[in-house]
Amino acid sequence: MRPAPTISATSPEQASARDVREGGRWTASQAAKNNVLYGLASTALALASPLPTSWLRAIGRALGRLAYAALPKPRRTAHENLARAFPDLRQAERRSMARRAYIELGGYLGDTVALLAGHPLSALPIAEASHRALLTALEEGRGVVFASAHLGPWERVAGSLVAAGIPLTTMAREGYDARFTRILDKLRRTLGVPAIYRGASNAHVRVMRTLRRGGVLGSPMDLRSRVPSIPTPLFGVPAATAVGPARIALRTGAALVVGTAAPGAHGLQITVTRVETGDLVAGVEGEATLTARINDELSRRILALPEGWVWMHPRWER
User: Is pTM beyond 0.85 here?
Assistant: First the structure.
């Protein structure tokens, strides 16, 4: 006789019950763990803030090396994801790439701590053709949906656009712990980037107002998240992908662009690519086609800057 099936400890129902963003409550052990994590993070920020930016970047890179060596589960996820994106590379080359990604992301973490401490960092340059394409889209007067990714120094990308006069508002998801959300709010205030949180009761209204006044709505959409999603190829492998940016663009008539940090002749720069929407209509089919076009562009950009992406994120179901 077979045993009765049991619900996994990571089932969606149980995850929602423990997710305060969805009306759940932490267990006593979760609360204790989160208190410890926040305490450690707060202490680390307080100790690190007086250090110069170059030191913070070096410490972050060292932490990236340590995380790669000490955390087997995310390291295994990174190797699996790189095998999907680079099936023709030898395993040793993919492992080297994963290690470099950990180190580079650690360096970007150091830059983030520097920004939180009030240290000035130069804005990333916007490629001239990309700047023109973005201004042309804005001149159409129906707003711009700016699909992006957690690629390179993504928080600095948003801040650099605002510093260049682009009226960017970013879509964001509240942190699992509201105290960490307040830290991110401080970072975005430092960069001058307003945020619309998806869980807010007026989020829909604020999205529409942003576009109607001819603003730019930023939406990172390269990671798995609990938002309406459809299976769409990323690196040629189907992955649950947020459909919101495509849906908003088609229903409002807003222009849609993909923009991220990208390699340039003199280091990283911001590049923007206009994605064609004129042949599509709002609805399931149009949304699926446009989401696929966005993922094609995101795939191209990530493959061009592989050391800058979060390969340790569980992007695909195992």
Answer: yes
**Side by side, which strands form the sheet with 144-148?**
195-197, 168-172, 216-220, 144-148, 255-264, 267-274
Token pair in block for residue 91: 């395993």
Do residues 138 and 216 touch, judged by C-beta distance below 8 A?
yes
* 196: nearest Cα among 251, 258, 132, 248: 248
Dihedral (Cα; 205, 207, 209, 210), 10-degree rounding: 160
Give me the torsion for CA of 87, 91, 95, 97, rounded to 10°: -50
Q: Which residue has the higher pLDDT, 172 or 260?
A: 260
Residue 23: which pLDDT band, with cuts at 50, 70 and 90? low
